[in-house]
Amino acid sequence: KNQVEQSPQSLIILEGKNCTLQCNYTVSPFSNLRWYKQDTGRGPVSLTIMTFSENTKSNGRYTATLDADTKQSSLHITASQLSDSASYICVVSGNYGGSQGNLIFGKGTKLSVKP
Amino acid sequence: KAGVTQTPRYLIKTRGQQVTLSCSPISGHRSVSWYQQTPGQGLQFLFEYFSETQRNKGNFPGRFSGRQFSNSRSEMNVSTLELGDSALYLCASKETDYEQYFGPGTRLTVT
To answer: For residue B48, what pLDDT band results from cuts at 50, 70 and 90?
Structure first.
């Protein structure tokens, strides 16, 4: 069964600290993996998209890694800020473009950054 | 370019009623997808429209339907509302095969 599991479910860190969020998937065939940030009451915003051949991709203080062999991805946040408080959703695409029907969503990690 | 817009932003309905939600995609985007988001299930795919045709459909009952107009604007309709339909309904549009852009969502509460 195609699944995307994220851990932890929630996380509290102090401002300025780093953190790493995990995403494990069993989706096959694999096309790409995306990380989204969703602020409370708003739609998700894309942080990174990685295809099979990409191991690391950065977007400012956000760095995503992908190990297609172990089917694991991580999102590392450096020097966290209060504005990083949000839910982070891992999404895996199981086809090669086109239809959205094969997007498998994780349930997200809720990150709270405290001053 | 303006982002994806959804109306209304908040809605309260009574069980048994029907509701119509609207989505205006980013200009030039021909694909519009709809998602339901609940705390317990996360984001779940409802359907996708491309050039007025439904391209794919998720595992939701027939009470959930949608359509897309020639200007790419899309509507989704839920008939005979149930308490479990309370959720954030998100619309997303895209131009390429990879990147999609989400709207702010419509928060539907069924009482």
So the answer is: very high
